[in-house]
TrEMBL record:
One of its GO terms (cellular component) is cytoplasm. The keyword Nucleotidyltransferase applies. One of its GO terms (molecular function) is DNA binding. It is an enzyme of class 2 (transferase). Residues 340-412 form the Polymerase/histidinol phosphatase N-terminal domain. The keyword Cytoplasm applies. One of its GO terms (biological process) is DNA-templated DNA replication. Keywords: Cytoplasm, DNA replication, DNA-directed DNA polymerase, Exonuclease, Hydrolase, Nuclease, Nucleotidyltransferase, Transferase. Belongs to the DNA polymerase type-C family. PolC subfamily. This is DNA polymerase III PolC-type. Gene3D superfamilies: 1.10.150.870, 3.30.1900.20, 6.10.140.1510, Metal-dependent hydrolases, Nucleic acid-binding proteins, PolC, middle finger domain. It comes from Selenomonas flueggei ATCC 43531. It catalyses: DNA(n) + a 2'-deoxyribonucleoside 5'-triphosphate = DNA(n+1) + diphosphate.
Length: 1255
């Protein structure tokens, strides 16, 4: 029996696709385009196609269409059935669903469409946009196309949608705002911080409280959000707002979005602003800026508005009428003499404590404490932040001492399974050094357990060796003393235990409540817990040890316990909800806690003794306060000699003033601040790589340094564009800003000797690298070939010694995704329905809590030969992986990057591709010109590739070119039409910046306000532009620095720039920027990419071989080796999937699509791809044949690198006589054999070594 299948359409133009090849006139094509395929029924080789249409097609067209489909798909019969649809009655009952589909998750668009009127006229839907705001929103979001698509899907026929602006206004809630009348008082009487009053026309102006953020103030009794279950027309809430953002449409209107949460739930909030009536756009802009500034990152507020249910997002939204700041009382320590906390954990206690070090120190300082200790579990990674916080407070006149310590894990022997908690407090610099040694030893030599649940343990004997300068405390209930008391050990044994410690510790009894609920322990009542502390007190008195009361802080306030509960719940703690009260207590709270010891003794253990311990500890910094660079003997002399020698070789014995001035400008601060050694180190690393045949690309701003260029650290020349003669050293500089890059100068011959002149120079100021005064520690980042990176890392050990180089350590804290999951699952497990804003609010209490450690991708920290690393940081293995031979800094590298030299020796694909191209083409990459017209042409056309844009599916030939291969940069190229090297550098800068292109330079260029050459693309552009327009160099530098960091330009500086003639559009562009890329980095990237583009044009097969070899993991030989049609079909499948997911694919599929598009291009250019050959293919690299490529084994999906190498090695001993022989000799597992079989590599090969004679 033949089965019938029903296929639903996945593409809007499916009918025309089915009819490809059918000759149609314009009328017929329009008629077919207006049809929508509802479904296709398939029965064997018979198709029945059901189409929806509003206009009847004649039988002749139907017959021709059916015949064409039958021919295209080799079918015996095709039937096409028309369903005539009357659009108006069909749309009416489905309009809400159509709008829902069209909005596709955009709540603002959904509400605006639902408010819009529509009318059906034949097959046209006329949509009336509610006012200018709605019209702009519809235009920007492509609402017409969205509605057309939704109608096709829901109704089953095609239509055309036309958006028209309605004459009505005020359709959006809260869109109207009228600024207050200006009071007739002198300007000096105004209150700058007061919010503008939102008043009706002709109303009297009323001065509002400075606390008002939006509206006229909030009045009424607040309700809890958690008890509101329906829409409310007027409600007052108290809580916190966070995540503020203002989205501006092209019309100038704003949508202010906020999230709000109180103690019970959360809700999304909105407020609309647009210029109406007498309100100007400038006033609206200023109002939104003021509101965002007033909100900041968020804070406590009272908020008033109406709650409406949003059917589209299935949740409630609060439309804001008014909002004002709310003061929240903080806990204070009011005792005359304050206590000191000697046992406190921060977020660096992995997945256990939630207090940021900064907040802990600031709270202790606000309470007036003289000191506070940091004692994280097994680590000291909070020290830098605590130090920086204390120093910042000192600048404000607030003094607090940080006691640097740790809660360790004490064991009696190296293999002792039982570890007890123990407190270490560094008394002085010697103690700090010994503490760091203990941290290193515990992590490197004595770490036991899994990476996640393991502990860095300290053997008692090792502690004794390094105890000098360390104050040792008995710790919490997990310490050996209290565990001994709980276990009922004899007094003599307890005294022996207690004698080991410098102080004995007790804690609030409810910290140990779990002892009452665990059958393993004899405690049953609170009095039993008090008896434990009384016993510790007894031992302290008898042995003359200080008794110290601590909180064992894991969260700051009692209500913060929920954050620790969320983390512990997510990590398998079944009793996570039953949190002990491990919060930071005030002096009064602690005295009340220990009153059962008697008032005098309670005061001693809470106040007197902790303060005495604090007084015993000295003040010192946990990390040095200055840079300790490795010594390179003769570095100062060497850098000067190398710089001048190279400069004279290029520019002549009598250096041009511009060259000598630049060398002097740079060398003076380099020598003065001791940076010469850093330059020489980088030079030696680069020279070693170059000598071994691998180019090195510079990163960051090092290309801003002409000295770096002269000694060979970077190939980017930062001088102004210029000519120079390689024969007689004639030179000529163009320093008027008319040329962006020397590569773009017209070619000329030397007027002295006739030799073709070399063109160079990219006009990059030195200040971008080392600061205006040249005192910023150089950050020299280098891109080595990924293949060569391990060699470069090893070479640092040769240069400095193995025990003087360590990988730069990193600390990974909980981020948004994990923290959100923790919070969401916590409330789900409790059966509590919480809105997304509430979950996002609660997750913030978990974010940043340390999860694990790691290492920088290529960062190397160098310790001077005459110093021990423990003067700077402990060391450990990354992620506590005891199988790793790598040692990293214990501190996050950022915290010590200005104390130790950090070398960024990064692995990158581009130098590897360049090396492969050199081997394949036998052309030195340094001889590739940067002004080749054919190469430049592929950035705007496909002519140099010999193919058409229609065939390729792109207007340019930049597939596979670094910096220019993404759809984002290709769209940028389309918009900007680059025609020279400097333009390419600008595009690279645009693509790496934030708020630099989209909504900024792109709009300016499209509007004709700016050209590609004038728009801001890199940080250097600002300094150069301002200086060329007469602005003071220091002010130009400071403006550049503020803009590149997203700080904008201060009002007083704006006035200075305006006075200097800087246009308004330029200033506004600066104000939008959040991050700017350095031009030196962009130039280095583009130079590498240009070389690869040159090879793509002039050495095509070598280019494809190199590119695919680097990306063999994404290359699917099963598809690409089957030919051009198979590649096209695979591309179309992925593009169709992308359309279904709003243009998005997952990363793996996106990478596959990029490779397929490049393979399609290769086929179009007349080249092909062969199947993998068992005896000829390489393990990992593509092999060039005359007009084709032979893929490696790793190009077959599922074939691993080891298996591929094993096959290549095994075949050296001769051909394989069978599949069994292959598997045995190459030690290849069954899955790899099946991969080879599927690809066809085993065709014709016997399965077994046994020959059956009589089979």
């Amino acid at each position: 029996m033949t089965k019938t299948y029903r296929i639903l359409p996945c593409a809007a133009d499916l009918l025309l696709r089915l009819l490809h090849g059918l000759a149609l006139d314009d009328e017929e094509r329009a008629l077919l385009r207006a049809c929508a395929v509802r479904h296709v029924e398939v029965r064997g080789d018979t198709w029945e196609i059901v189409v929806g249409t509003q206009m009847i097609m004649d039988d002749a067209l139907i017959d021709r269409a059916a015949a064409q489909v039958a021919e295209n798909y080799q079918l015996s019969q095709v039937l096409i059935q028309q369903n005539i649809v009357a659009l108006a009655p069909a749309v009416a009952p489905l309009w809400e669903s159509i709008v829902r589909d069209a909005a596709a998750g955009d709540a603002v668009l959904y509400h605006t469409l639902m408010q819009a009127d529509y009318a059906v006229d034949g097959n046209v839907i006329r949509l009336s946009a509610p006012g200018t705001f709605g019209a702009e929103l519809f235009a920007q979001s492509g609402a017409a196309g969205r509605i057309e698509s939704a109608v096709r899907t829901r109704v089953g026929c095609a239509c055309r949608v036309v958006c028209e602006e309605s004459a009505l206004s005020g359709a959006l809630p809260g869109a109207d705002w009228t600024p207050p009348a200006v009071p007739a008082v002198p300007a000096k009487a105004a209150t700058p911080s007061a919010a503008p009053a939102h008043t009706a026309k002709n109303a009297k102006t009323k001065r509002l409280s400075p606390e008002v953020i939006i509206g006229r103030g909030v009045s009424g009794e607040a309700r809890e959000l958690g008890v509101i279950e329906d829409e409310v027309k007027n409600v007052v809430l108290e809580g916190e707002v966070f995540d503020p953002q203002a989205n501006q449409l092209k019309s100038g209107a704003y949508i202010l979005l906020l999230k709000f949460a109180d103690a019970t739930n959360g809700i999304s909030c909105k407020k609309f602003f647009s210029a109406r009536g007498k309100t100007t756009q400038e006033e609206i802009d200023a109002e939104v800026v003021r509101i965002l500034k007033a909100i900041g990152k968020g804070g406590a507020v009272r908020i008033q508005g109406k709650i409406e249910y949003d059917k589209f997002i299935s949740d409630y939204v609060l439309f804001i009428d008014s909002m004002e700041k709310r003061s929240v009382p903080q806990r204070e320590d009011t005792s005359k003499e304050k206590r000191v906390e000697l046992h406190a954990h921060t977020k660096m206690s992995a997945l256990d404590a939630v207090v940021p070090p900064k907040v802990l120190v600031e709270t202790a300082a606000r309470w007036g404490w003289p000191a506070v200790a940091i004692t994280d579990h097994g680590v000291v990674q909070a020290f830098p932040e605590a130090m920086n916080t204390a120093r910042a407070l000192a600048k404000k006149g607030i003094d607090i001492k940080i006691i640097y310590g740790m809660e360790g894990y004490l064991v009696d022997g190296e293999d002792d399974a039982r570890a007890f908690h123990i407190i270490f407090l560094a008394k002085n610099k010697t103690g700090l050094y010994n503490l760091y040694k203990l941290v290193s030893l515990s992590h490197i030599r004595y770490f036991r357990g899994t990476k996640k649940r393991g502990r860095p343990r300290v053997p008692r004997a090792v502690l004794q060796q390094h105890r000098e300068g360390i104050i040792v405390g008995s710790a919490c209930e997990a310490g050996e003393l209290i565990r001994g008391i709980v276990a009922g050990r004899p007094n003599a044994e307890l005294e022996e235990m207690a004698q080991f410690y410098d102080f004995l510790e007790i804690q609030p009894i409810h910290n140990n409540d779990f002892l009452k609920f665990d059958d393993r322990f004899p405690m049953q009542t609170d009095e039993d817990l008090r008896d434990i502390n009384r016993k510790v007190d007894e031992l302290a008195r008898k042995l003359g040890k200080p008794l110290i009361a601590t909180c064992d802080v894991h969260f700051l306030n009692p209500e913060d316990a929920v954050y620790r509960a969320m983390i512990q719940k997510a990590n398998g703690y079944r009793d996570a909800e039953r949190q002990p009260p491990l919060y930071l207590r005030t002096t009064e709270e602690m005295l009340a806690e220990f009153d059962y010891l008697g008032a005098e003794r309670a005061y001693e253990c809470v106040v007197t003794n902790p303060r005495r311990i604090a007084e015993e500890t000295e003040r010192f910094l946990p990390i040095p306060d200055e840079l300790y660079a490795p010594m390179v003997p003769g570095a100062d002399r060497e850098i000067q000699e190398m710089s001048y020698a190279r400069a004279r070789k290029l520019y002549g014995e009598n250096l041009p003033k511009i060259v000598s001035d630049r060398l002097e400008l740079e060398l003076k601060p380099i020598l003065r601040h001791g940076f010469a050694a850093l330059y020489i180190i980088a030079q030696r690393l680069v020279k070693k790589s170059n000598d071994d045949g691998y180019l090195v690309g510079s990163r960051g701003s090092v290309g801003s340094s002409f000295v770096a260029t002269m000694i060979g650290v970077t190939e980017v020349n930062p001088l102004p564009p210029h000519y120079r003669c390689p024969h007689c050293q004639y030179n000529r500089f163009i320093d008027d800003g008319s040329v962006g890059s020397g590569f773009d100068l017209p070619s000329e011959d030397c007027p002295v000797c006739g030799t073709p002149l070399i063109k160079d120079g990219h006009n990059i100021p030195f200040a971008v690298f080392l600061g205006f005064d040249g005192d910023k520690v150089p950050d020299i980042d280098l891109n080595f070939s990924g293949d060569y990176q391990p060699v470069a890392h090893k070479y640092t050990e040769v240069l400095f010694g193995k025990m003087n180089v360590f990988r730069a350590g990193t600390i990974a804290g909980l981020q948004d995704k994990n923290a959100y999951g923790y919070a969401m699952h916590y409330y789900e497990d409790q059966g509590a329905a919480k809105g997304r804003p509430y979950i996002e609010h609660m997750m913030r209490g978990c974010m940043g809590v340390k999860a694990t450690t790691g290492q920088h991708a290529g960062g190397i920290m160098v310790v001077p030969r005459d110093m021990d690393v423990h003067y700077f940081t402990p060391i450990q293995r990354p992620a506590n992986n005891m199988e790793s031979d790598t040692l990293t800094t214990h501190f996050d590298y950022h915290s010590i990057s200005e104390r130790l030299v950090k070398l960024d020796i990064l692995g990158h694909d581009d130098p590897t591709v360049i090396k492969m191209l050199e081997e394949l083409t036998h052309r030195d990459p340094e001889t590739i010109p940067f002004d080749d017209p054919a190469t430049m042409s592929i950035f705007t056309s496909t002519d140099a590739l010999g193919i058409t844009p229609e065939d390729l599916g792109a207007n340019m030939g930049t597939y596979g070119i670094p910096e220019f291969r993404t759809s984002f940069t290709q769209k940028m190229i389309d918009d900007s039409n680059p025609d020279c090297f400097a333009d390419l550098v600008r595009i690279s800068g645009f693509s790496h910046g934030t708020n630099v292109w989209l909504g900024n330079a792109q709009d300016l260029i499209k509007a004709g306000t700016s050209t590609l050459k004038d728009a801001i693309s890199a940080r250097d552009d600002i300094m150069n532009y301002l200086m060329q327009n007469g602005i003071d160099p220091l002010l130009s530098f400071k403006t550049m620095e503020n803009v590149r960091k997203g700080r904008g330009i201060a009002p007083d500086v704006v006035e200075k720039l305006r006075a200097g003639g800087i246009p308004e559009w330029y200033i506004e562009s600066c104000q939008k920027i959040k991050y700017l890329f350095p031009r030196a980095h962009a130039t280095a990237y583009v130079m590498m990419g240009y070389r690869i583009a040159f090879c793509k044009v002039h050495y095509p097969l070598a280019y494809y071989a190199a590119y695919f070899s680097i990306r063999a993991a994404e290359f699917d030989a099963n598809i690409i080796s089957k030919g051009k049609d198979a590649v096209r079909a695979a591309i179309d499948t992925l593009l169709a999937e992308a359309r279904e997911h709003r243009g998005k694919l997952d990363n793996k599929k996106q990478d596959t699509l990029i490779v397929l598009q490049l393979a399609w291009e290769m086929y179009l250019r007349g080249f092909s791809c062969e199947p993998v050959d068992l005896y000829a293919s390489d393990a990992e690299k593509f092999i060039l044949h005359e007009t084709s490529l032979l893929p490696p084994f790793t190009a077959i999906p599922g074939m691993g690198q080891k298996a591929a190498q094993a096959i290549v090695e095994a075949r050296r001993d001769g051909r394989f006589i069978s599949v069994e022989d292959l598997a045995t000799r190459a030690h290849v597992a069954a899955p790899a054999i099946e991969v080879l079989r599927t690809h066809g590599c085993l065709d014709g090969m016997m399965e077994s070594n046994q020959v059956e004679l009589f089979a």
